[in-house]
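Below: protein 1.
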Amino acid sequence: MTKSKSNIKLFLILIFTILSIALIFSLSEIEAQAKTIVIRSGEELKDINWKNKGYGPGNKYVIGNDFTLGDGEYSTCRLTKGKFIIDFNGHTVQNATQNLGVFSISGADVTFIDSKVSPNKASVSSYGAGGIDMTAGKLVINSGNYVGLSTGSNNPCGLHVGGGTCVVNGGFIGGDYLGADCSGGNLYINGGTFEGGYTFALADLGNGNIKISKGVFKAGTTTYGYRFAFGAMKPNVYYNFNSWLAGGASFSTSFQTGYWNMQSQVSAYPGVMYYFAVSYQTPQISVSNNISTVPTTLKKVVSKKKRTLKANWNKKSGISGYQIQVATNKKFTKNVKTVTASAGKASATIKKLKSKKRYYVRIRTYRNYNGTVLYSAWSKAKAKKVK
């Protein structure tokens, strides 16, 4: 009997050892996959979508220097699936040939970040490819410098949205021909600077949904002397640019609305009767807003059941919900737990806390707006010991 128990014990130890080794290898593999990779050329940029290159989704990519894609380099960086974070680290990546774009997003979830970029005006040239071409998925541009330049004969722009959802929170987007255009999907602009070299800073080329809450739009100068900030290809249809404004937003610059008859001047667009445009001879148009979300305060925090806390707060209107956070220290860095509650609620219960432990509780409101989430300031914290 004793020998049998000893064998069982040895067997369990062996199994535990094998599982431990397997877990270590598994964690090592995960750690190896989640790495930061520096990109310095068009060839490396193209490879980030391929796992067999050692790259793939889940890694963080940092642009290591300014570079311009030329004919001799690999073409578009195609992001088709998975989640990518690309930090431009103060650098500009742009195209400079007629058939070569920089990014093609067709299904992936991509975030571009960069907190150091200064605007770089696109030169006035003929036509060319684009900086970012999006057809599906999600793209969030928090900042950065995305420029479509050319030496060829296509239509260059910093950003083209043909599908999916693109949220621009900041950065510079410009092109030799136009800054950005939307022919499908959703384009939500919450900040940033858009600049067209030859025509519009922003154009509607199809059936996309454009909403602007804040931004600066610099008009390009055509050979005919016109300056257009906004434009749309809407044959024989009057275009209302106020429909682009999100709730609470407004044009802070006065401008004229009219049309430019392109039929006799642009043979490339025989079916387009008019470019509807705004901002004749106006160098720049700004959109501003008073969008915010109001904070709330905690009324009381109680612990009536073991390992739980219940928080009550002052209800607010015009918001999407509440975010409640608890922690075991005042700086909210230890044993942090966060829960959310809908806008109609005035209380929430936080479960599975540590018994007999003092917790600090705070709350803030949030609002889903124009493709992004706005948060209020945190309330003053309340402390309570858990049963």
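Below: protein 2.
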Amino acid sequence: MTILLKKATGISAGEFPKLVTCKWPLGRVTLYHDRIILDVRVEKYELLLADIEHFQINIFQVNIEHRNPNIIKDISINGIFTARAIRKAIEQYRLPVKVVP
């Protein structure tokens, strides 16, 4: 698998009481043609792009809406440069995932 994007970032996943967070530079997001892997140090989440409904990309944050029942529902990637890099990679490689503002 070819890595399209690998970036250190902040990540939060879940809701209280099961909330996992990792601040920059300890979190890591890796994007491939068919999946995204989020490494939050104590947890690792792997989502197929086919399971992702959309990426909601704001200036400082990316929220991932997905339908994989085995992975925590609320996942956010934090960081101004990370959000821009994810949007750019999705557009550049024409990945099969929807992006909403």
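Residues 17 and 72 are 12 Å apart (CA to CA).
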